[in-house]
């Protein structure tokens, strides 16, 4: 018998940052091609496991490498096709990927921590309730994004961040997405 928490909940969405949560960060560079995309150990399996829990799984990612001219939008789309293919072949799903491709200092409503990508997701998934959604990321931008929208926030803490600046923004902290998935799968229906 499946644990109660593995049932889908209509309107419960999981928002995931990409770099540092799903795939390894490439240092000071960018993931510019599918060959540059390397899953963090356990993250692919975590996405598969979380696919049975959440109504929607959404990736929201800042990808200023496009805005800087280091890759094209087609390059970024190829990376995301590979990521989605890996997830589907493993038996999971990601329902949508939103990418903010402008540069950091541009005034963009889509670039995290601004809320634009969440509003796009709400347009695409009309039943979504942000107060029942979760945001999993590894930067202060991710935590601000989720906090501003009333989501439960989860900090993946392998990234070096001064936790003193984040405590009021972080609801949960885990070393990796796999640990978060284990926590969620073990939760009861009071998500």
Give the topology string: H per helix, E per strand: EHEHHEHEHEEH
- Anisotropy-based shape: globular
Q: Please report the number of helical segments.
A: 6
Predict the CATH topology. Rossmann fold
Explain what you see.
The longest helix has 17 residues, at about 75-90. The protein has about 190 residues and is of the alpha/beta class. It has a six-stranded parallel sheet with strand order 3-2-1-4-5-6, with helices on both faces. The protein starts with 8 loop residues before the first strand and ends in a 5-residue tail after the last helix. The protein is globular, with a radius of gyration of 16 Å. It has a single domain, classed as HAD superfamily/HAD-like (Rossmann fold). Helices cover about 30% and strands about 20% of the residues. Helix 1 (about 45-50) packs parallel to helix 6 (about 175-185).
How would you sum up this structure in a few lines?
This protein has 191 residues and is an alpha/beta fold.
Map the helices and strands:
Elements: E1 9-16, H1 43-51, E2 54-62, H2 64-67, H3 73-89, E3 96-100, H4 116-124, E4 134-137, H5 140-148, E5 152-156, E6 172-174, H6 177-186
Parallel strand pairs: 1-2, 1-4, 2-3, 4-5, 5-6
Helix pairs in contact: 1-6
List keywords for this structure.
single chain, alpha/beta, Rossmann fold, 6 helices, 18% strand
């Amino acid at each position: 018998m499946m644990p109660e928490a593995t049932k889908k909940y209509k309107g419960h969405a999981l928002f995931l940052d990409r770099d540092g949560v799903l795939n390894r960060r490439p240092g000071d560079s960018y993931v510019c091609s599918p060959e540059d995309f390397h899953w963090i150990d356990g993250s692919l399996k975590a996405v598969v496991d979380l696919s049975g829990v959440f109504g929607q799984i959404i990736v929201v990612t800042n990808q200023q490498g496009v805005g800087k001219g280091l890759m094209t939008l087609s390059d970024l789309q190829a990376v995301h096709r590979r990521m989605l293919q890996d997830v589907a072949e493993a038996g999971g799903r990601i329902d949508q990927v939103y990418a903010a491709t402008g540069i950091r200092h541009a005034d963009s409503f889509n670039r995290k921590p601004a809320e634009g990508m969440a509003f796009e997701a709400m347009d695409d998934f009309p039943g979504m309730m942000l107060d029942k959604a979760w945001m999993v990321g590894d930067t202060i931008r991710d935590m601000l994004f989720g906090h501003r929208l009333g989501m439960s926030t989860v900090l993946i803490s392998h990234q070096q961040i001064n936790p003193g600046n984040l405590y009021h923004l972080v609801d949960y902290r885990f070393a990796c997405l796999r640990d978060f998935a284990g926590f969620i799968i073990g939760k009861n229906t009071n998500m």
